[in-house]
Amino acid sequence: MSTANSKQARYDIDELQAALDAETKLRLELEERLRRTQEDFQEFIFNAAHDLREPLRTVNAYCELLTRANQQHDAAEADQFRRYIMEGTAKIQALVSGMGEYATACADSHYVLRTDVTDVLREALAAAPSSAERAPVITHDPLPTVRGDFEKLVKVFRHLFDNAFRYCDAPEPRIHVSSRRDGSDWVFMVRDNGPGIEHAYHERIFKPFKRLHGRQFPGVGLGLAFCQKAIESHGGRIWVESLPGSGATVCFSLPAAD
Q1: Do the beta carbons of residue 28 and residue 47 sit within 8 Å?
Q2: Coil, strand, or helix at residue 68?
Q3: Other CB atoms closer than 10 Å to residue 121's CB: what's the count?
Q4: Under the phi-then-psi rule, with left for phi > 0, alpha for psi from -120 to 50, and beta for the rest, what region is 135?
Q5: How many CB atoms lie within 10 A of CB 180?
Q6: CA dihedral 103, 223, 255, 32 (to 10 degrees)
């Protein structure tokens, strides 16, 4: 074999080995991703069943008590039982609705288009949380254009606003949205003036059904979990920066449109 042919053969072998190594790496990455997905799914189902069990027991128990109260013609007691049944039913409906929305966040985005985040924010602000006593002051800097699923990103901002407002104990809740360029991505910051979050819980808050507060705050623990899955479906990541007593800033990255 000539020297030229020998060099070409070695080159071909090296090319084939490099391609094989790349395919092996990709296969291992896919296997690891599948393993994590299966573990996440199993944990999700377990926690969903656990959280549904309590309101179902409540509804069942008070249905039985309501039957007895009706037989005894105790109208006041029957009305109270009906309220408990309605509360339990509302919690079940909220859980089922949240689980359905979470499932859409996990799915790959089919409508990843050039998206103006200012338009996303405008849509999210139309459903900003408020109460009879107060409403949050939501401000923002000029925002860029990204590659994203418009509807998913609207829901992300809605959940972040709702979460910031719900746990804020300040007389005037304030939320500010800003952004900065980071290589080929844009990083968005949603900052609030709430009580802040201890470092030990910075990862826990994004887990499905994991809530840091008791029953004094309504919710099913799927809002931030939705945000994490929705951002990851865009190839980005989400995290929180916070210290107790100094508010919290939820940050997430999205691919730039250019």
Answers
A1: no
A2: helix
A3: 19
A4: beta
A5: 12
A6: -50
Mind listing the pLDDT tens digit for each residue in 108-139?
666 789 999 999 999 999 887 776 577 889 99
Structure tokens belonging to residue 87: 């509360």
Q: With CA atoms as reference, report the closest residue to 223 among 236, 243, 238.
A: 238
Euclidean distance between CA atoms 258 and 116, whole angstroms: 12
**Could you tell me the two tokens for 80?**
């109270």
For each of the domains in the chain, give its residue range(s) and CATH number, in order of start.
Answer: 1-106 (1.10.287.130), 112-255 (3.30.565.10)
- Looking up tokens 């309101």 gives 55
Backbone angles phi, psi at 167, to 5 degrees: -100, 5
Segments in the chain forming alpha helices (H): 3-72, 75-106, 117-125, 150-166, 223-232
Residue 24, helix vs strand vs coil: helix
Residue range 23-28: average pLDDT? Answer: 78
CB 164 within 8 A of CB 173: yes
Vertex 100 angle, CA 241 and 62, to 5°: 105
